[in-house]
Write a structure and sequence with these properties.
Two copies of one chain form a homodimer.
Chain A (H helix, E strand, L loop, with lengths): L7 E6 L3 H13 L12 E5 L7 H7 L5 H14 L2 E6 L7 H14 L4 E2 L2 H12 L5 E5 L2 H6 L1 H5 L7 E3 L3 H12 L14 H16 L4 E4 L17 E2 L1 H13 L8
Helix pairs in contact in A: 1-10, 3-4, 5-10, 8-9
């Protein structure tokens, strides 16, 4: 075994599976390499059967907390030496899911550090756009209903979060979950209907005065290219992937 | 934990890392699902620093056999319960690498079954095109020099393998390895120069009489779409991914 292997990076994917793949791609895309061997040791675990739908849990509260399945994935990663990991799902970062998850990790997997995707995003927004106040975000109904973004982009710190109106939130949810055209079922390629809904809802947020928009669901970057907009568009998955690269090999972090 | 989790699938990626990602995508794309939770539990391990370049090993024989790094990845996968795994690299299937690798797995990881990507490809070619004789393949210089495809597509079984001419083989190698435009360094997006070389060399093989062409390097499907050709184009990575799905959940294997 080569002694220069970096501390192992883990990605808890499967939530959904294509979003996990996109998170991994972000790690690769943000690493400076000249050959295969320069890429960072990374393990993507995708066990979706273990993790109930996060939005359903938050809205209906009738099934097992997804935190338990996320923890089982974390346990498996830790068992093979993973040191830093993220969960590739925004909705999972709701305190009702993420707090019990991180509590279990702290207690039972003390050698594993969880990089919180939304804390990473908040820190990046504050750093790169310190004057930013009005920030829009596209998300699942579970993320909106649980108020998870309000926990990270706090009013008392000057943030004013903007959400699409009721119909827009419903349409975004369909763009993610619809069996006919939603990204979770139709990812490769993403359907034009899903993409057009997400583009339009982003433009509407900007038109209403949002100074930046967050793609607040890891399925959204599969459909929306931040470069399609003049305004800053933040992708928490990309930011967390960059944070993981920066933690294990800062000299290899590609300039953004 | 949900009791209905499938036997864990493993992908030994990192050889190269984007090819591993593509292999994982093939598992997702070939699974019938209606929601996230229907996707199969899969772990992608990508530890490229552990696995020296396969082509360099075969051509120069000066470094450690990549089999040892592949085995370390297999060991990690087995430690978390993976039952079936493939190595997402054609060149690694040369007997000089793959035989010691599978010997170590059989001896030390008896619960892990390795699905051989090239055996799977040969079986599929024989099944779907039983009369096929003249078969072209695009590959790295290591794959050509090691004769690995001749071990699987045997003359005494009637196969006549066709390779590009010398200059073509050099150009294909550049399309994969060049620091300026090769797929290993420039995968997202693939550069037009790499793509055009590979398209042209495929057309030339078909023009010389190949009845089908195999994309004999896992980087090639990142650049070449089999649907760009009228002739049958085989992608061993896709075939092995389908085989893994069929092994753990035959009822979920999507029709090709």
């Amino acid at each position: 075994m080569c002694s220069s292997e970096n501390p192992l990076i883990g990605v808890i994917g499967g939530v959904g599976p294509y979003a996990g793949l996109d998170f991994f791609r972000n790690i690769l895309n943000n690493t400076i390499i000249a050959r295969d061997q320069d890429h960072l040791s990374t393990v993507l675990i995708s066990c979706p059967a273990l993790i109930p739908d996060r939005t359903e849990y938050l809205l209906e509260n009738e099934q097992e907390n997804p935190a338990f399945g996320m923890f089982e994935c974390a346990r498996r990663l830790e068992a093979i030496g993973v040191k830093y990991a993220s969960v590739a799902c925004n909705t999972a970062h709701s305190k009702r899911i993420f707090d019990p998850f991180t509590a279990m990790v702290r207690e039972k997997l003390p050698n594993l550090e969880i990089v919180n995707m939304l804390e990473t995003c908040t820190a990046q927004v504050k750093k790169t756009m310190p004057g930013l106040r009005r920030i829009g975000y596209l998300a699942t109904k579970g993320t909106y209903a649980s108020g998870v973004y309000h926990e990270y982009f706090r009013e008392d710190e000057g943030f004013s979060l903007m959400e699409p109106e009721f119909q827009g939130r419903e349409r975004i949810h369909e763009a993610i979950y619809s069996k006919e055209f939603g990204i979770k079922v139709h990812s490769d390629p993403v359907q034009a209907k899903a993409r057009s809904i997400l583009l339009y809802e982003t433009f509407k947020l900007l038109d209403r005065g949002a100074e930046a928009v967050i793609l607040g669901c890891t399925e959204l970057p599969l459909a929306v290219n931040p470069h399609d907009f003049l305004a800053p568009i933040f992708d928490p998955g990309k930011l967390a992937a960059r944070r993981l690269v920066g933690l294990v090999a800062p000299e290899k972090l590609r300039q953004d």
